[in-house]
UniProtKB/TrEMBL annotation:
Keywords: Cell outer membrane, Membrane, Receptor, Signal
Highest rank taxon of the organism: Bacteria
Protein name, per record: TonB-dependent receptor family protein
Signal peptide interval: 1-21
Organism annotation: Hymenobacter nitidus
Every Outer membrane protein beta-barrel domain range: 384-785
PROSITE patterns in the cross-refs: PROKAR_LIPOPROTEIN
């Protein structure tokens, strides 16, 4: 703990030091048109006199007023721009120690008839800017923002792929963290997808793709962060939208529906969203295993079909912010989710010394029911402590998740020689309860010369209880003590960070930070008496540098250290059976995975980028099959592999094929290697991987937009599995009606059923092959009506969500 306290003391000492507190002045003014009407949301940029490089900037509020921190002493001009108006550039002005700021008074913009005539074809593609520590995809004001959902825009961002279940990959790597306005989401993959599908893209300001997050973010998560920044609600009164959609995966029908309401008065801003759904899905699979034992060889051939239906009455999310004054506001956020699910997993399995001569047939049918509830609450404060940009924010969060499940296992064993059969019925009842409490504050202070220091603290407490009971059910329930387990997990984390950013010259931007996280955890099985205690303090440094070589070429470097903690379900040693020869089991001895990530990126013309990256991973968390060769059984568990190496290139190249046809293209090439010295001996898995992604947007006559998404993933290594190539093609047709109040879209996903999971392991010659298709191919129709066009969501709105919940799976 002494390192944690030392970091906090250093941060407070640095912020309190008078020598740093030489705050610069401010630049202020008001923007109106020729008729004296305010021009809101205009872009204000401060540019070096005689140059084209923007030093700093801001966006005016709805009344045309702007205020921003002035840069260091020098000569500058102010450039003001807005759609439909001519660019305004002020005469050069000087800033010095004696005159650090300036009030521009009234600035008048002149209408630009030519620009207004072309507004329908401007901004077809979201603009992309490569910052020192992230890529920013600007959505506001583009054609993509009209008639699309937040999910549509996120799914078409460079290197991002989201499957039908909501699982997200970034540059071919899973485990991505999604944030709203810089706060982590409470939602599972399906719930997150449902929420984003119900959110109009017009609510988005931009999307930040952060492959190497800086120290201010939680150290959890090694694949990167996708941060969706929402626009500010400026429309007074009540506004919102309603939507409904239906989909069919050629075996099952599903639907979603919902509404959003926003209300704004003088001092308060409130929102309410409702999202109901009937989610459907399943899989059709083939599993093949070959066990080479000392006394015999066993072939395992299985055909499997799985189906699920998950229904949810409207998920409720609501919140409000109240302005105590112009600089201080408080608010709350609350959410409630209830979901009921039913699923089955039906298998036919043949076992024998050869495929041609099986000796046993097993008909195993599993049926399960679950009820899931999620309660979330948040209280928050946001303060602007002065006019130079000093801010203080604080959040208190509470999450309670309960899940109750039941499952029946019907197993019929048939000996194919004599033709005799036996029947065995089993039953499980599971109850899990997860509670998370967290509090944090973040402090930001700008200093002279464009420097900025950020500091903060976070504490969290997690309590997880899992009572899993297994019964034989052959006439009467009989508890099986060997497969029953009551497991409790307690975890507390204390974290603090200090982050600095600034310029070292006209063209070099720097950022450096350090985060400390102290973790204590106790996992206890009351059934076996086994107790696993862990206590570890880690430091997570991050460094970023961006050098402008010339006006058309930037070079940036980043380094960060991250970790992945095991999710709570993976720590629970309870067994869940797929069939009599296959089961999953948790591992209470799991350790965190650590990743050191290096990235060198080239950006040309502010549009094209090529990034070299290298990730070095230790204690890699991965699913591992453990074989009992003589019994022909397989246990799947999560374990720590020794090391992982991922080295590769990522290229982003948008290209306009015509004025009405735009494309966004991404290519990833990487070499991946994983190795471990485990029970089955020393194992190595390596593969050259490549991914090609191309998204196309075509503006057709009569306000019809055609969108095409194509993707090809080459073979890859993931832990001990070798995954075979996959491909995806999706098409959407969208039309805006009723003076842009009604949006209708028809989409078809995975047209050629190419997104099929085929992966295998070879452990000392023993084969374990999977071939699964999760019914990604579907057709869907969505209708959305905006009863107040242009409704926006408050930037203060909290889906104030915690990393801890993302590990609840």
């Amino acid at each position: 703990m002494k390192y944690l306290y030392l970091l906090l003391y250093s941060a407070l000492l640095l912020l309190a030091c008078p020598s740093w507190a030489q705050s610069t002045g401010v630049l202020t003014g008001t923007i109106k048109d020729e008729k004296g009407a305010a021009v809101g949301f205009t872009t204000v940029a401060v540019v070096l006199a005689g140059g084209k490089t923007s030093v700093t900037g801001t966006v005016a509020d709805e009344n045309g007023r702007f205020q921003l921190q002035a840069p260091a002493a020098g000569s500058y001009v102010l450039r003001v721009s807005a759609v439909g108006y001519k660019l305004l550039e002020t005469p050069a002005f000087a800033l010095s120690a004696a005159a650090p700021g300036l009030d521009f008074g009234l600035l008048v913009l002149l209408a630009d008839a030519k620009q207004l005539a072309e507004v329908n074809i401007v901004g077809l593609r979201p603009t992309i800017v490569q910052e020192a520590d992230r890529m920013v995809v600007t959505v506001e004001g583009t054609a993509m923002a009209a008639g699309n959902t937040a999910f549509d825009v996120l799914a078409k961002s460079p290197g991002v792929f989201i499957d039908q279940e909501g699982n997200i990959q970034l540059n071919g790597k899973p485990g991505v963290t999604v944030m709203l306005d810089g706060r982590l989401t409470y939602l599972s993959a399906r719930e997150l997808r449902s929420m984003l599908e119900g959110m109009p893209a017009a609510n988005l300001k931009n999307i930040e793709i952060i492959t190497n997050p800086p120290a201010k973010y939680d150290a959890e998560g090694t694949s990167g962060i996708l941060n969706l920044n929402l626009k500010t609600n400026t429309q007074r009164g009540l506004n919102g939208s309603v939507y409904a959609s239906g989909n069919y995966n050629f075996q099952q029908f599903g639907h979603t529906y919902g509404a959003s309401l926003n209300a704004k008065q003088e001092k308060w801003n409130a929102f309410l969203t409702l999202d109901g759904s009937r989610r459907v899905g399943g899989r059709d699979a083939t599993f093949t295993r070959i066990f080479y034992g000392e006394r015999k060889t066993t072939y395992f051939d299985q055909q499997a079909t799985g189906n699920f239906v998950s229904t949810s009455p409207p998920v409720v999310r609501t919140g409000a912010d109240y302005s105590l004054s112009k600089r201080h506001s408080v608010g709350f956020m609350a959410g409630y989710t209830l979901r009921r699910g039913e699923s089955d997993f039906l298998t036919d399995t043949y076992l024998g010394p050869s495929r041609q001569e099986p000796t046993r047939f097993i008909d195993a049918d599993n049926f399960s029911r679950t009820t899931y509830t999620n309660y979330t609450g948040n209280l928050h404060y946001n303060g602007k402590l002065d006019t130079t940009g000093t801010t203080l924010t604080a959040d208190l969060d509470m999450v309670k998740i309960t899940s109750q499940g039941q499952a029946d296992f019907f197993n019929i064993f048939t000996e194919l020689g004599p033709g005799t059969s036996t029947r065995n019925v089993e039953y499980t009842n599971t109850l899990s309860d997860l509670q998370i409490y967290a509090g944090k504050f973040d402090y930001t202070r700008p200093f002279a010369g464009g420097h900025k220091v950020e500091a903060g603290m976070k504490v969290s407490q997690v309590n997880a209880d899992n009572d899993s009971r297994f019964y034989f059910n052959n006439g009467a329930l009989e508890l099986d003590p060997l497969r029953t387990n009551y497991f409790a997990y307690r975890e507390s984390i204390q974290a603090a960070y200090l982050n600095w950013s600034g310029k070292a010259g006209e063209r070099l931007k720097l950022q450096a930070g350090l985060r400390a996280e102290n973790t204590r955890s106790v996992g206890e099985s009351y059934t076996t008496g086994q107790v696993t205690r862990r206590r570890y303090l880690n430091l997570f440094p991050s460094v970023f540098a961006q050098q402008e070589i010339n006006k058309n070429y930037d070079l940036s470097f980043s380094y960060s250290r991250r970790l992945n903690r095991p999710n709570y379900g993976s720590l629970n040693p309870f067994r869940f059976y797929r069939d009599p020869y296959t089961y999953e089991e948790g591992n209470p001895f799991l350790r965190p995975q650590y990743t050191q990530a290096f990235r060198l990126a080239h950006t040309i013309h502010k549009v094209y980028s090529l990034a070299f990256n290298y990730d070095y991973q230790t204690a890699v968390l991965s699913e591992v099959p453990i074989l009992d060769v003589e019994a022909a059984t397989t246990k799947y568990t999560t374990d720590n592999l020794d090391t992982g190496h991922i080295i590769g290139l990522t290229g982003v190249a948008p290209y306009k094929l015509a004025k009405w046809w735009d494309s966004q293209n991404t290519v990833v090439v990487s070499y991946r290697k994983f190795s471990t010295d485990a029970t089955n001996g020393f194992l190595t898995n390596e593969q050259l991987y490549y991914m090609l992604q191309s998204n196309h947007t075509l503006l057709l006559p009569n306000k019809v937009r055609l969108e095409v998404e194509a993707r090809y993933l080459g073979p890859t290594a993931s832990g001990l599995y070798l995954i075979e190539p996959m491909h995806w093609l999706g098409v959407a047709v969208k039309r805006t009606l009723l003076r842009e109040k009604l949006d209708v879209s028809l989409n078809v996903n995975d047209i050629f059923k190419g997104y099929r999971y085929r992966f295998s392991t070879n452990i000392n010659g023993n084969i374990n092959d999977f071939n699964q298709y999760f019914r990604f191919r579907s057709v869907g129709l969505t209708v959305r009506y905006n009863f107040s066009r242009g409704a926006k969501i408050d930037v203060k709105r909290r889906n104030s969500n915690l990393e801890e919940v993302n590990r609840a799976g």
